[in-house]
Amino acid sequence: MANSSVFAPWSDNGPIPWIVALGASGPGGVNDTKALLGALPSTLSAAVMVVIHRSWDQQSYLRDFLASASALPVVIAANGERLQIGIVYIGEPSQHLTLAINGIGELVDDPSRHYGDRTIDLLFHSVAAHAGPRAIGVILSGRLDDGSRGLVAMHEAGGITMVLAPSSSPEHDMPRNAIDFSGPVDLIGSITRIAQGITKACGDQIP
């Protein structure tokens, strides 16, 4: 486990806030993300960062779709802004959302699709590096294995790891691979159980 003293606080008034990083892919992942955000309380003491695989060159209505169920405001992150507790952040389809030092959101341009299907790993590695033991990484539905390596980085930094309990559906390749690749995962369960785990870790109560 990483020494939490290496993670500089965002301000002089207290510890690093909790960062919840959610990764998903495909229609099932979009619906899972909407359901999970809808299960989180409006008082959640964390900033939430969401990465979902989607077409990078088409207009996206993801913000409106997620906001329709979320008690937390859902915003499109601006490059270089400091993340705020109680806000859900997503990026534009052509950019990758990451966390930089001191709670700054950083959008990585990738016109050549260098990161391809590794955008969740990119987010998770950045959150592990800059939030350490105050990080919560969550893998929801999706294909392939994006997020598996980033979840390991979070675990090694002292963060909390959660994975949706997989079924036999191909859309659950991502959670299955995360469990197989990552070794110990702190919580494997339903959307409801994951929401409960997040709120408990952040010191909130689900009403």
Polypeptide structure, described:
The structure is a single chain. The protein is α/β, with parallel strands linked by helices and 207 residues long. The chain has a single domain (17-201), classed as 3-Layer(aba) Sandwich (Rossmann fold), CATH 3.40.50. 30% of the residues lie in helices and 22% in strands. It has six helices and nine strands. The chain has helices at 26-39, 62-67, 119-131, 148-156, 173-182, 191-201; strands at residues 18-25, 46-53, 74-76, 88-90, 95-99, 105-109, 135-139, 160-164, 187-189. A seven-stranded parallel β-sheet has the order 3-4-2-1-7-8-9, sandwiched between helices. Strands 5-6 form a two-stranded antiparallel ribbon. Strand 1, helix 1 (26-39) and strand 2 (46-53) form a beta-alpha-beta unit. The chain is globular. Mean pLDDT is 86; it is low at 1-9.
Task: Explain the layout of strands and helices.
Layout: E1 18-25, H1 26-39, E2 46-53, H2 62-67, E3 74-76, E4 88-90, E5 95-99, E6 105-109, H3 119-131, E7 135-139, H4 148-156, E8 160-164, H5 173-182, E9 187-189, H6 191-201
Helix pairs in contact: 1-6, 3-4, 4-5
| Shape call | globular
CATH third-tier fold name: Rossmann fold
CATH architecture: 3-Layer(aba) Sandwich
**Largest beta-sheet characterization:** 7 strands, parallel
Radius of gyration: 15 Å
Number of strands: 9
Beta strand %: 15-25%
Low-confidence stretches: 1-9
Structural class: alpha/beta
Overall average residue pLDDT: 86
Record the strand order, biggest sheet. Answer: 3-4-2-1-7-8-9
What is the string of helix and strand elements? EHEHEEEEHEHEHEH
* Helix count from the secondary structure assignment: 6
Corresponding CATH superfamily: Methylesterase CheB, C-terminal domain
CATH top level assignment: Alpha Beta
| Estimated helix fraction | 25-40%
Report the span from N to C terminus. Answer: 33 Å
